[in-house]
Amino acid sequence: MGSIEHPRERARIATGEELAALLHHPSADVLLALLDNPALDETQLCMLLEREDQLLGRLPQLPLGQKITLARRGPARVAGALLAEGHAHVVSIVLDNPYLTEAQVLKALSREKLPAAVIPAIVRHRKWSITYNVRLALVRHPASPLGTVLGFLPELTVSDLRELASPGIVPESLRKYLQAEVQRRTRSREKAAEGSATPEEPPGSKQE
Fold it and tell me: Measuring CA to CA, which residue among 110, 98, 163, 117 is closest to residue 134?
């Protein structure tokens, strides 16, 4: 058994002092194998995640099984990189990762070209689909389905709608809907203001 293979296999089952020692192993393969170890406690997990630069450097070459492991428990930057990579079997898993941050989701959505699985998965996700800034980013993204985007418009602030409706930010086909939503909100606000204005009663009109 090779010098790397042996500690990688041990990393999945080690406990106690052996597990603690493997946290400092120089091989990224061993670090990835530790993520599968059920004996890894939260303190040890935090120590492992501090070495995320090593994990990031290996992402493109990793087999699917290890990517799925990282998608479940990897740190924020690793999770964000996996999201942007957009593997169909990984995206839905990484969106449930408790370490994935809004900033990493927004970073992925800032890319004009994304793999086909990414945006539908975010749109369907119970957490990220209702996060305001993520919705805003989805409205901006050229690959977002028009029907989904139109459903978000009533939830956006007027100031954000006006900014998005500026020339060159979104396609013209969407821009007209943004402008119409701004006009609808303006009319609604004007009607509400008119309804709240109570006219003064003329002198002597009060019944005794």
Answer: 110
pLDDT along the chain (208 residues), means of 10: 66 90 86 84 80 79 86 89 96 96 97 95 96 97 94 95 93 93 91 69 50
Cβ atoms within 10 Å, residue 100 = 24
Which DSSP string corresponds to 94-134? HTT-TT--HHHHHHHHT-SS--TTHHHHHHH-TTGGG-HHH
Report the C-alpha gap between 36 and 55 in whole angstroms.
14
- Residues contacting 182, CB < 8 A, separation 6+: 158, 161, 162, 165
CA dist 108 and 104 (Å) reads 6
- Residues in the chain, how many? 208
Look at residues 14, 55, 3, 63 and name the one whose alpha carbon lies nearest to residue 38: 14
Residue 26 φ/ψ, nearest 5 degrees: -75, -15
Look up residue 43 and give its amino acid.
T
In angstroms, the CA 121 to CA 93 distance is 10
Secondary structure class of 42 (helix, strand, coil): helix
What is the model's pTM? 0.76
What token pair was written down for 147? 């029907």
- CA pair distance 199, 122, nearest whole angstrom: 50
Cα–Cα distance, 11 to 199 (Å, whole number): 79
Is residue 149 within 8 A of residue 139, CB to CB? The reply is: yes
